[in-house]
Design brief:
This protein is of the alpha+beta class. The protein is built from 3 helices and 10 strands, in the order H-E-E-E-E-E-H-E-E-E-E-H-E. The relative contact order is 0.15.
Length: 203
């Protein structure tokens, strides 16, 4: 092998080493961390909390936030005083279904239905807690269901005077149920649901 071939081989080796070093440093990129990043979400600007009374022709009253809208339920099977409390900026709805109780049997069936409808979310829920609602001075009693996890509905409840009146509420957001994405909104709206329940009165 001549000197020319030796020099050529040395040049090729040097060039190869140089290219490999450049590729190595390029891949390091100044020690950038390319591990998977958590999903990012848009910043949410929450409105100021201010409340107004609901005093339409139904046998109950309560207060609700001024950034919500209350509309009659447009479902063909809806009964009088079935309402939807819309939260347009959060793409959420609190469905309210009122029933006039005609018998003890009907009352028991309504209570059982509320329990079943809340616990049907156990497939996606990590836990379901029941809290007792009791305001004897206003004859308002009920159960509040807190449903944790990626369930379609995170809050459900019913209120009754145990004699003539019953209303059930269920909060839904019109998007994929991902708790990590809706948690700030859920926390915000749950406070409004709490205010509604605490202010609830039968006429």
């Amino acid at each position: 092998m001549g000197n020319m071939d030796i020099k050529r081989d040395a040049s090729v080796k040097q060039a190869t080493v140089l290219i490999l070093l450049l590729l190595f440093f390029a891949s390091c990129g100044g020690n950038h961390d390319y591990s998977p990043k958590p999903r990012g979400y848009f910043r949410i600007n929450f409105p100021k909390k201010d409340y107004q009374p609901y005093v339409a022709g139904c046998p109950f009253t309560f207060v609700y936030p001024n950034y919500a809208k209350i509309e009659p339920d447009k479902n063909p099977d809806a009964k009088p005083c079935w309402l939807n409390m819309q939260f347009p900026q959060f793409n959420g709805t609190l469905h309210l279904s009122y029933e006039h109780i005609l018998s003890k049997k009907e009352f028991n069936e309504l209570i059982e239905d509320a329990h079943k409808l809340s616990f049907k979310h156990t497939v996606k829920a990590t836990s379901i807690d029941e809290g007792v609602i009791s305001y004897p001075d206003r004859k308002v009693y009920g159960i509040y269901y807190t449903i944790d996890g990626n369930a379609a509905s995170s809050v459900q409840f019913y209120l009754t005077d145990s004699i003539h009146n019953y209303i059930r509420g269920a909060l839904y957001f019109n998007n994929e149920p991902r708790l990590d994405s809706i948690q700030p909104v859920l926390t915000f709206v749950k406070k409004d649901v709490d205010v509604m329940i605490k202010s609830f009165r039968w006429k």
